[in-house]
Design goal:
Blueprint lengths: L8 E4 L124 H5 L3 H9 L11 H7 L29 E3 L5 E6 L19 E4 L14 H16 L3 E7 H4 L11 E5 L4
Antiparallel strand pairs: 1-4, 2-3, 3-4, 5-6
Bound molecules: heme C.
């Protein structure tokens, strides 16, 4: 069976940046909480050497997305790579295996070797994620239980009228966020309502589908488990062309079949679906050599 290349957008609300590896970092550099000064544009990035210690970022009161400032020139290497692999009792642990693996196409980064070797370029040998070592205890001590419970119980995604706060804001982006200076936000605008029907499809307040679909997933082992303080929703949405018939009309069945094809491609397993007339999608889903009725989609060959 031939398959088209499908672009899958994945919305992970629990961002990697939020995953702290508390107490486990290889080098706990001491960082004082610098005074945060207001600035629209920050200074250019300093050149860094392995011996540099970086202060925490100076963010203006209005988060300046126009700020271009490289504090960490090896930021593509996440803090997880600096996890201390020897615990207090002297026992070795290997958390690196969760990400650095023998890869399977189309992932061509085959790097299980870094599980055994501290293979950083010199500049990256010292943990540059100084922001993870800021001691916030005095700030935290000023926040009472009632305040934090009220914060947790208040949505910062929807306003009281059920509108998506960030989408409303991006409809007329603040000047400090507007790179193009044209009053338009060019990037992604959140549009998931987290209101799912029985099949996992996200519904707008008017009951129409947004295209986002929730699916069962295992969080990556490590800091990403709910037991370690991390939680999130994972949704998938295929581009409009995969949600429509050839005449451009939205079609739920075609979308469900396309999602099943994606699942079969990713998991490389047969995916069971509701019986479907293959002529509708013009694809021999069950690979039996003819366009008939199919109850399964085969992985790509
Ligand atoms: C959460 C996933 C994750 C974990 C866990 C993780 N890494 Fe990484 N690591 C990455 C990513 C992403 C990169 C950047 C992309 C790349 O270079 O592969 C990276 C990069 C690296 C690099 C630089 C590779 C290069 O080509 O420059 C080294 C070395 C490394 N990690 C070592 C480790 C070690 C040692 C551990 C365990 C203590 C570890 N990593 C744990 C995700 C992870």
């Amino acid at each position: 069976m031939t398959c088209r290349v499908l672009w899958v957008s994945i919305l992970v609300s629990a961002a990697l940046a939020a995953a702290f590896v508390l107490g486990l970092q290889r080098q706990a550099s001491r960082v004082s909480t610098a005074r945060l000064a207001a600035a629209r544009y920050a200074e250019p990035a300093p050149s860094v050497s392995a011996s540099d210690e970086h202060p925490p970022p100076r963010l203006p009161p209005v988060l300046a997305l126009k700020q271009i400032y490289t504090l960490n020139q090896t930021a593509f290497i996440p803090p997880q790579c600096y996890t201390n692999t020897i615990d207090d009792a002297g026992t070795a642990h290997n958390p690196c295996y969760t990400c650095h693996v023998e890869s399977r196409a189309p992932n061509y980064i085959n790097d299980p070797d870094v599980q055994l070797e501290y293979a950083f370029v010199p500049r990256a040998r010292k943990n540059p994620w100084a922001n993870l070592f800021v001691d916030w205890s005095s700030e935290i001590a000023t926040v009472g239980d009632a305040a934090i419970l009220s914060y947790v119980h208040t949505s910062n995604y929807f306003d009281v009228a059920g509108r998506i706060i960030l989408a409303e804001k991006l409809a007329r982006p603040p000047r400090t966020w507007d790179h193009g200076d044209d009053g338009r936000w060019e990037g992604f605008i959140p549009d998931a309502y987290f209101r799912f029907d029985a099949a996992g499809f996200d519904l707008r307040p008017d009951g129409t589908r947004t295209g986002w679909r929730a699916y069962a997933y295992h969080p990556l082992p490590g800091t990403f488990w709910p037991t370690n303080g991390s939680f999130g929703d994972v949704l998938v949405r295929l581009p409009a062309a995969f949600r429509e018939r050839s005449d451009g009309k939205p079609d739920d069945l075609i979308y469900e079949v396309n999602l099943a094809i994606v699942e079969a491609l990713v998991t490389r397993q047969t995916v069971l679906i509701e019986p479907v007339d293959e002529r509708l999608v013009d694809v021999d889903l069950d690979g039996d050599g003819r366009l008939g009725r199919s109850e399964r989609g085969e992985g790509a060959t």
